[in-house]
Every structure is written in structure tokens, then in C-alpha cells.
């Protein structure tokens, strides 16, 4: 079985994340969506809420398992779940510059490869941080979030 990990904090999950996850299911038999937590970072949603939000958002897709990654190394998590690849979405050259050194380190540590998928042009401007900022200032983010995230933000229509 070909297994990949699609990691993120998903605070909240948005349609750009979902588009990359869905495309990953076409490349691998199983995609483990790893919900990460960095205890140095402030989150809007608890890990349990983020896990529930992701599970609900991917429930219509086959071949997906959602799991908490914890705070360890992504390479170690990949080894634990038997993944041969990490799938990352790239929105711009800045993402590429940030992700390439991490991909090299993950390959060095455990031999796991990183597969980069370019984001759909509808989502290249999206980030969870930007969505939260726009929403907190009264902007409409309903075009960018799945229903599970909209409900939790209190903006479901």
C-alpha cells in the first residue's frame, strides 16, 4: 500500500487544504492527514476541534485517515505510520523556498520523499492566518472554508 502524509495545523482547514488532500488521494492508496500542534504557537481551535473539523471536512473522500501528529518531527511521524511520502501544497515560490530545505531534511532523516502539488489558482492567496484575520474583522470568508470550519467560526449561512 502506498501511503502519504499530508500535514498541517489546519487552524482552520480551508478549501485550499482540501483541494491538495483530494488530489493526494489520486496518487496514493491512503493519505494520513496529520494534524500538528506546535506548543509555541497560539491556535484559535484546540487540537480536538481541529481533528473533528478535518474529519468532517474530508468525510466524503475515500482513502483518508485523520490523526493527531503531536509535536515531534514529521519524519518520525511518517516512519510511525509507514508513509513513503509527504504531500505539500505550494502556493508560490515563497512556499517552495520554505519547503525545499525541510523536504531535504526529511529525506535525509528517514528516506521519506516530499511530493509538491501546486495549488489551484482559486486558492493561491489562502492561508488559515489570512482567513482568521479577515473573519475577525467582519469579512465574509464563506467562499474559502468548508461547512465544518464555517460553523466553528460562527459564520455558517
UniProtKB/TrEMBL annotation:
Tell me the subunit arrangement.
Homohexamer.
| Gene3D superfamilies for the chain | HUPs
Q: Which pathway, metabolic or otherwise, does it act in?
A: Cofactor biosynthesis; coenzyme A biosynthesis; CoA from (R)-pantothenate: step 4/5
Residues holding ATP: 9-10, 17, 89-91, 99, 123-129
All copies of domain Cytidyltransferase-like, residue ranges: 5-133
Q: Where is the signal peptide?
A: none
Q: What is its EC number?
A: 2.7.7.3
UniProt-recorded name of the protein: Phosphopantetheine adenylyltransferase
What does the record give as the function of this protein? Answer: Reversibly transfers an adenylyl group from ATP to 4'-phosphopantetheine, yielding dephospho-CoA (dPCoA) and pyrophosphate.
Q: Where in the cell is it found?
A: Cytoplasm
Q: Which NCBIfam families match?
A: coaD_prev_kdtB, cyt_tran_rel
Please report which protein family the annotation says this sequence is part of: Belongs to the bacterial CoaD family.
Q: Which UniProt keywords apply?
A: ATP-binding, Coenzyme A biosynthesis, Cytoplasm, Magnesium, Nucleotide-binding, Nucleotidyltransferase, Transferase
Cofactor(s) needed by this chain: Mg(2+)
The alphabetized list of GO BP terms reads:
coenzyme A biosynthetic process
Reaction(s) catalyzed by this protein?
A: (R)-4'-phosphopantetheine + ATP + H(+) = 3'-dephospho-CoA + diphosphate
Respond yes or no to whether keyword Transferase is given for this record. Answer: yes
Q: Which PANTHER family match?
A: PHOSPHOPANTETHEINE ADENYLYLTRANSFERASE
Gene Ontology CC: one annotated term: cytoplasm
Q: Which residues bind substrate?
A: 9, 41, 74, 88
The record's section on InterPro entries has:
Cyt_trans-like, PPAT, Rossmann-like_a/b/a_fold
Amino acid at each position: 500500500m502506498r501511503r502519504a502524509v499530508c500535514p498541517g495545523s489546519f487552524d482552520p482547514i480551508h478549501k485550499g487544504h482540501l483541494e491538495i488532500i483530494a488530489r493526494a488521494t489520486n496518487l496514493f492508496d491512503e493519505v494520513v492527514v496529520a494534524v500538528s500542534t506546535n506548543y509555541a504557537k497560539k491556535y484559535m481551535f484546540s487540537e480536538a476541534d481541529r481533528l473533528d473539523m478535518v474529519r468532517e471536512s474530508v468525510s466524503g473522500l475515500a482513502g483518508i485517515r485523520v490523526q493527531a501528529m503531536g509535536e515531534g518531527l514529521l519524519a518520525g511521524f511518517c516512519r510511525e505510520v509507514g508513509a513513503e511520502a509527504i504531500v505539500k501544497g505550494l502556493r508560490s515560490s515563497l512556499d517552495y523556498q520554505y519547503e525545499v530545505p525541510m523536504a531535504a531534511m526529511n529525506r535525509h532523516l528517514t528516506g521519506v520523499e516530499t511530493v509538491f502539488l501546486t495549488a489551484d489558482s482559486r486558492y493561491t492567496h489562502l492561508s488559515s492566518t489570512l482567513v482568521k484575520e479577515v473573519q475577525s474583522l467582519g469579512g465574509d470568508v464563506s467562499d474559502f472554508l468548508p461547512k465544518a470550519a464555517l460553523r466553528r467560526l460562527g459564520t455558517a449561512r
